[in-house]
Amino acid sequence: MKTLSTQTTVKTTLLVTLLALTLACGYSSKTSPAVAGTVPAITELSPDSVTAGGDTFTLTVNGSNFSSKAVVNWNGTAQTANTTYVSGSQLMVTVPASAIATAGTVAVTVTNPATAGSGAYGSGGTLAETSQPMNFTIN
Known about the structure:
Number of domains: 2
Order of helices and strands: HEEEEEEEEEE
Distance between the termini: 94 Å
Structural class: alpha+beta
Strand content: 35-45%
CATH class of the largest domain: Mainly Beta
Largest sheet: 6 strands, mixed
Radius of gyration: 27 Å
CATH superfamily of the largest domain: Immunoglobulins
């Protein structure tokens, strides 16, 4: 029968050996960088114009590659609370009357947000991607 001291020595030696082998095999907390995400594209805005000073309205954004968490940007400002995902090719956004108070042109874009990495160390994931702008006219 082994003594307590011998058992402790064996356990310690085994633990040190396992740690050495694990580190020698490349086990570490390496992470890989995020990769490019899917770029959304806008093909149509409906309506494509409104009259200045009008009421709040719903803008339908048609296109492709919209993620379920995609956000419409109105003149560079994310409309996070106002964007509704309909499908991978359609979003709707409520545009407040204050945003169309004066005549001008507004750039409308869509952003697919970044996604977190997965796996044991949270590596990977995707970067946020934004569509090319489409102009919206306030007459």
